[in-house]
């Protein structure tokens, strides 16, 4: 399709793993044919510059996002920032970090969940995720007068405006700026802000990356947990099996990441820098190639029985991953936390490895956290949070999801729902504490 109707660059939606591999490999070569770009960056499309100017987005982008890793998805600045984020994320690969995430998640869920009352499922999960992210990534507590509900009202409002190609409201911008200024003054020493300062990053670049972090992560992780809860609500017999044998959980999480990749449905596009041909398909200079993970994940030519949720699909892979990592001899089962071994077993690839689409070491063509050199640098924390919150939900809570009849086919629903921002259909749920929730399985 053409971006501007009858004029403008053509957009190619890539669901062929071979094409995705070709593009990502070519973008990483010494003479790249493709460049990963932000579609809002006027440097690559004069029409975008005009639109962002007319809608008022340009002022917000220049002030708050233009120097972030999200807005500069390739090039020297991106590589430097990516390295910085990955060096920070290493702290979440230890046993102590899993225990800390589990304990904090228990505390947050106990405080935020309204017991035995119907609540908006996605909103409640997003509140949990946002609170944990602020604590572990930012090492920050919201200031007086800021509830988690207000925090999400501001960040969702800004993100939703960007998603709709509009300028955030003056109030949203003002509140976000107030929050960021407070964060830069009061965030504690264990957070990302202190880490960036240690890397001699400019205050402007720090602020822009904080903005990107506040807007993006809480959406994708809430999406992952949203589909996790829906799956077990629709499959209570499997929930019983996992409660009896938790070794099944990592493979189920991986299958959920396949059927419902938590990242935005559309990943950052690649700009063709010169004419190219792949498998007979002509790609002209200036074309944009958009990678959509779900197209690969639900492709019957790529995955056997792709539209079927197969709880055992990744069992052999998870077992092989378990053998790669030494088990922590000091693991205390009483903590209930996920072990580093299980977190790594659940990950499509270790962050040190390559893109799961273009590297044969990983599951075949699984890319829930991005492709190429742009896979999420915070993937380790993301899976640790998903794994530990999932364990708590399984053992400590009974979650009844209402209006499940409107969600008959969660695989198709993923395509129809706009999960890049917030689901269109908003089921309500009731959380009830479980009376019997001892963790008896040896999943280490």
CATH hierarchy, class: Mainly Alpha
Mind summarizing the main beta sheet?
5 strands, mixed
Low-confidence stretches: 328-332, 416-420, 437-444
Number of helices: 17
- Cα radius of gyration in angstroms: 21 Å
Q: What is the H/E string?
A: EEHEHHHHEHHHHHHHEEEEHHHHEHE
- Average residue-wise pLDDT: 84
Notes on the protein architecture:
By secondary structure, the chain is an alpha+beta fold. The protein has a single domain, classed as Cytochrome p450 (Orthogonal Bundle), CATH 1.10.630. Helix content is 49%, strand content 9%. The protein has helices at 17-27, 46-55, 57-64, 75-89, 95-112, 121-136, 148-163, 170-186, 192-198, 203-234, 236-244, 249-259, 293-297, 315-324, 340-346, 379-396, 410-416, and strands at residues 2-4, 7-14, 34-36, 118-120, 270-272, 276-278, 281-283, 288-291, 397-401, 428-433. The longest helix is centred in the middle third of the chain and has 32 residues, at 203-234. Mean pLDDT is 84; it is low at 328-332, 416-420 and 437-444.
């Amino acid at each position: 399709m053409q971006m501007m109707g009858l004029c403008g660059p053509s957009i190619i939606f890539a669901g062929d793993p071979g094409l995705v591999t070709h593009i990502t490999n070519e973008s990483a070569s010494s003479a790249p044919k493709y460049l990963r770009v932000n579609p809002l960056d006027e440097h690559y499309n004069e029409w975008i510059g005009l639109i962002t100017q007319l809608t008022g987005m340009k002022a917000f982008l220049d002030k708050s996002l233009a120097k972030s890793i999200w807005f500069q998805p390739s090039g020297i600045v991106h590589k430097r920032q990516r390295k910085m984020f990955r060096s920070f994320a290493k702290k979440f690969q230890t046993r102590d970090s899993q225990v800390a995430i589990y304990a904090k998640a228990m505390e947050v869920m106990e405080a935020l969940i309204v017991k035995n009352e119907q609540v908006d499922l996605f909103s409640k999960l997003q509140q949990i995720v946002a609170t944990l992210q602020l604590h572990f990534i930012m090492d920050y507590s919201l200031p007086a007068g800021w509830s988690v509900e207000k925090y999400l009202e501001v960040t969702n409002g800004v993100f939703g405006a960007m998603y709709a190609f509009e300028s955030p409201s003056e109030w949203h911008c003002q509140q976000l700026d107030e929050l960021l200024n407070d964060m830069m003054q009061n965030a504690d020493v264990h957070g990302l802000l202190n880490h960036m300062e240690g890397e001699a990053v400019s205050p402007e670049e720090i602020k822009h990356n904080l903005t990107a972090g506040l807007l993006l992560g809480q959406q994708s992780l809430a999406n992952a947990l949203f589909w996790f809860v829906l799956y077990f609500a629709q499959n209570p017999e499997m929930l019983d099996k996992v409660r009896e044998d938790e070794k099944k959980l990592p493979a189920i999480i991986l299958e959920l990441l396949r059927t419902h990749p938590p990242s935005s449905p559309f990943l950052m596009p690649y700009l063709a820098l010169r004419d190219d041909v792949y498998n007979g398909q002509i790609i002209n200079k200036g074309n944009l190639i958009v990678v959509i993970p779900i197209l690969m994940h639900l492709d019957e030519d790529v995955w056997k029985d792709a539209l079927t949720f197969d709880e055992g699909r990744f069992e052999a892979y998870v077992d092989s991953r378990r053998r790669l990592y030494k088990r922590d001899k000091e693991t205390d089962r009483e903590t209930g936390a996920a072990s580093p071994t299980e977190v790594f077993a659940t990950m499509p690839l270790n962050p040190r490895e390559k893109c799961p689409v273009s590297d044969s070491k990983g599951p075949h063509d699984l890319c829930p956290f991005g492709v190429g050199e742009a896979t999420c640098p915070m993937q380790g924390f993301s899976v640790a949070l998903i794994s530990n919150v999932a364990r708590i939900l399984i053992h400590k809570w009974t979650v009844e999801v209402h209006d499940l009849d409107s969600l008959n086919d969660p695989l198709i629903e993923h395509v129809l729902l706009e999960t890049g921002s917030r689901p269109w259909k908003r089921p309500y749920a009731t959380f009830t504490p479980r009376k019997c929730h001892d963790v008896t399985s040896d999943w280490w």
